[in-house]
Here is the input.
Amino acid sequence: MTRQLLATPDQYRALVDQFDTFLLDMDGVLWQGSKLIPGVDRALARLRALGKRLIFVTNNSTKSRASYVHKLESLGLYGAAPDDIVGAAYATACYLTSIGFPKDKWVYVVGQQGVVDELTAQGFQACGLEDTGVPFTGMDDLAAIQPDPRIGAVVCGFDGHLNYTKLAKAHTYLMSNPDTLFLATNPDVCDPVHGRTFPACGAMYSPLVASTGRSPRVVGKPNATMLDVIVRVHGLDRTCMVGDRLDTDVRFGLNGGCQTLLVLSGVTTEEALFSQNAIAPHYYMASLGELQYIP
Here is the structure.
């Protein structure tokens, strides 16, 4: 596959004329940390002026779709509604809905508020946040952790307050009943922050894989489960996936039969893009912000 560099306004116009919908990753595409990537606000406005539909797709499970609307607006990116956002937490709740997960069962969450918010929005009962900050003082504490027949699923997302109590409870629920579902919101093992990497969701459910011998169904990019949610809600005709990661964003688009655009404003460098065995996007460019110059 040819990795075509886009670097001129005419090339930008030729790109966008091919598509009706753009699936946009967020971190590394729209912003870095808490700062908007230059020109992105004008680029999104230009795409909308051309009648393009923008769907924001993220593996970050810490926020609900409503919270992401607030984050977009806080950075000056207006015009998005919750239905325009597909996050890993939302996709996980959609998966449970699609399989008819019983509403009288509880979901134990190793994660943060975003997962709980999306589960409860679809009528599921969620617990686990109450174990944040619970200290582990010794093996005697484990006697209080017992199998609970109400728990029908364990969902793992990024958890900035991960502790032994949460892992011990999740382990107990998964081991005590083989029918208890084991889900992970996304596969990212590490996230890049300020030029370094730190543990992400994949590193947080790995202890449970080791202790239980079970592997979770992973929902987020590049997996088909998240793709199914987008297809069901939005369709994928004449769609381009835009992201900054080869292993999740670009592979996700390719898995869905979409054209793919890699931006070099986030994780992937040009050197990595052209390294041996690298996943190849259809197009690449310096930054999404360059699309502000579409004639």
Remarks:
- The first helix runs from residue 9 to 16.
- The first strand starts at residue 4 and ends at 5.
- The domain at 92-218 is CATH 3.40.50.1000 (Rossmann fold).
- Residues 223 and 252 are 7 Å apart (CA to CA).
